[in-house]
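Dear colleagues,

As part of the handover before I leave the project, I'm documenting each prediction I ran so the next person doesn't have to rerun anything. This entry is a single chain, and its sequence is reproduced below.
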Amino acid sequence: MTRLLRVDCHVHTMWSGDSTTTPDELAGAVVTSGIDVLCITDHSTIDGALRLADELPCRVVVGQEQRTPEGELIGLFLTEKIPAGCRSATEAAQAIRSCGGLVYVPHPYDPMRHRLAGGVLERLAGEELVDVVEVRNGKTPLESLNEEAASACRRLDLAAGGGSDAHVPEAIGAVYVETPDFNGPREFLVALRAPETQVVGHHFDGARPWRARVVPSVWRRTGG
């Protein structure tokens, strides 16, 4: 039987601004967690994902999490940065699609996060601008919220994804999707709908005592 891949669809690094996970820490966490494919989805940038694509002991999918006035969306398999200043979720989704990416909806029902506003997920699905719904998020504390996302995913007949939403290395792989192998965005969508595919994982919010952190500057590499 062919081994399934472990794909963490939603991970942040020190390029995100709200995460301090360095490349070395990320590499170690990948080995510890057994993740095969890491979707690096930093806030408002793809610089870290591009930098790390050939440096980690796993495959990397270039992604970006982008906030809009209607909530956050993630682009996966991006070839260029989602532009800042998108005036709506529709505009951001169209930008993702324009560079060949998949539109991934993170934590759609978690009220503590920058989720899509009420009715926007349904609107985007009606516009055929959603590819994957995150049905399990490692930072969403209530199982009922993940179940609500899974129910909407089934109702709208969309592919189901899952990710740790890790902002610290210890959280990498807390949630992942087990899928058959794939090559590129179209095959990934097919793999997500395969009968053997499943979303695996749990809520991660381990105690993190405060400690001083000094991480390499990304200012010159990102341009600000």
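DSSP finds seven helices and nine strands in the chain. Residues 5-208 form a domain with the TIM Barrel fold (CATH 3.20.20.140).

All the best with the project,
I.
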